[in-house]
Design goal:
Length: about 150
C-alpha cells in the first residue's frame, strides 16, 4: 500500500507535463508544416466557414501530414482549412483565396488520385486526396484568371 501513496505525486506531475509537451509538439508542427506562415496571411475566424465543410479530411502540408484531422471546404472566397479541436492550440483556421493558389495538379500514384496545390507567394505545397477536392474543382478553375498553372514546375 505504501507504493500506491508514493505514486500520487508522480501522476500529478505527469499530467501537466504531458499537456505542455503536447502543446510544444503542436507548436513545432505548425512551424514545420508552414501552417503558421499561412496563418499570418490567410488566417480567419472559426465562425467564417463555408457550408461545404467536410470533416476528417487528410492533407500533407510542407513536411507534415495531417491525417483525418482537418475540416476542409470552400466557397467563392477561397479554400478553407480548419484543424480539429486539439490541433487548434497552434493551428488557426485558414481561408486561402483562390487567387493565391499558384499551381494545381491532379496525379495518380498507384491506386490513389491526389491534388497538389502551390499556395501563396512561398509556393507551399498542399497535397490532398482528389476526392476531397471534387466539389471545389469548379472554384479552382474559375479562380484561375489565367494566372494559375494546371501543372506544377
Amino acid at each position: 500500500m505504501a507504493s500506491l501513496s508514493q505514486s500520487g505525486p508522480a501522476l500529478e506531475l505527469f499530467l501537466p507535463l504531458a499537456a505542455l509537451w503536447f502543446a510544444f509538439v503542436m507548436w513545432v508542427l505548425s512551424w514545420v508544416s508552414g501552417w503558421r506562415g499561412l496563418a499570418r496571411n490567410f488566417g480567419t475566424d472559426a465562425g467564417d466557414r463555408p457550408e461545404s465543410m467536410r470533416w476528417l479530411r487528410s492533407a500533407r502540408l510542407g513536411w507534415a501530414s495531417y491525417n483525418h484531422c482537418l475540416w476542409m471546404g470552400g466557397d467563392e472566397r477561397g479554400l478553407y482549412l480548419r484543424p480539429v479541436l486539439p490541433l487548434r492550440l497552434s493551428h488557426s483556421p485558414l481561408r486561402i483565396p483562390w487567387s493565391e493558389i499558384r499551381a494545381w495538379e491532379r496525379k495518380k500514384f498507384l491506386f490513389r488520385w491526389t491534388d497538389t496545390l502551390l499556395l501563396g507567394p512561398t509556393h507551399l505545397r498542399l497535397t490532398v486526396p482528389s476526392s476531397a477536392m471534387e466539389s471545389l474543382t469548379a472554384y479552382l478553375e474559375d479562380g484561375r484568371d489565367g494566372r494559375v498553372q494546371t501543372r506544377l514546375r
